[in-house]
Amino acid sequence: MKQKELKFIERIEEIKALARLQKHVVSKAQVEELFLDFAKDPEHMEHVYSFLREQRIGIDEAVDTDEFLSKEEKSYLEFYMEELSLLEKVSDGVKHAIILSALAKDQDAKNKLIELFLPQVVDIAKLYTGQGVYLEDLIGEGNIALITAVEMINCVEDSSEVEPLLVKMIMNAMEEAINQEEAELKEEKAAAKLVEKVSEHVKELSELINRNITIEELTREGKFTAKEIKKAIFFSGGEIEHLDCETIENEGL
Q1: Which regions of the chain are under pLDDT 50?
Q2: In terms of residue numbers, what domain contains 193?
Q3: Which has the closest alpha carbon to 15: 39, 46, 48, 38?
């Protein structure tokens, strides 16, 4: 990879990290400053702004995340927000007092702190919609991370660091869920491609000898490793046309 391309990727990661610190909003001036070396290339800058749109990162003002929700997600969110509306609202002063009590290891205050941040979990989750994980699952991951984070607030040195810690751990949990979903989808696509290749090759061999192929013959033929054949059989549900899959245990795969 060329040095300029590496530098561009680094800048993308920097703008993403900056947005996380600023509630998914960056200024146009910040973008222009970070990508000063690429400003003369319209194609590069289009990639930047396209990335920001895809990541729900606003320029100078927050993105209206509701427009990215599906009908089902809006329906779920309406019901869920009705439940959250029953929770007690508190002033900023009371919120700060709760944080201080939670830092003093008061369990009731910790529980109250979790309640206070549940609506914020929803706001954060809406920033990550459309990336392969349903809103309901994002909120679930965020809530678990919130509970875990509240138990870790004693590691901060000042009460002002509590909210950034909670937000960071909530966002990390959602991003991890998205990354895991992407990895699983990538593996499924690769597996489906392997099944397709093995099936096509087995069909060709079967037509040549006018009968089904045994796993031993397919392995000996050498086009696929034993591991690939076993994987293809597994992801096909144990049935590949023209291949005798029942002999898999006997043939040591």
Answers
A1: 250-252
A2: 187-247
A3: 48
64 three-class SS: coil
**Same domain for 130 and 221?**
no
CA nearest to 162, candidates 98, 206, 228, 88:
98
Q: Please give the tally of structural domains in the chain.
A: 3
128 shares a domain with 82: yes
Decide: 129 and 174 in contact? Cβ < 8 Å: no
Calpha distance 38→29 (Å, rounded): 14
Cite the DSSP H helix spans in the chain.
Answer: 3-21, 28-34, 42-54, 71-84, 92-103, 107-127, 135-150, 162-209, 215-221, 226-235
pTM summary value: 0.73
Pairwise CA distance, residues 83 & 79, whole Å: 7
Same domain, 129 and 234: no
My answer on whether 112 and 160 are in the same domain is: yes
- Judging by beta carbons within 10 Å of its beta carbon (0-12, 13-18, 19+), is residue 36 exposed, middle or buried? exposed
For residues 120 and 221, membership in a common domain is answered with no
Q: In whole angstroms, what is the distance from residue 75 CA to residue 86 CA?
A: 18
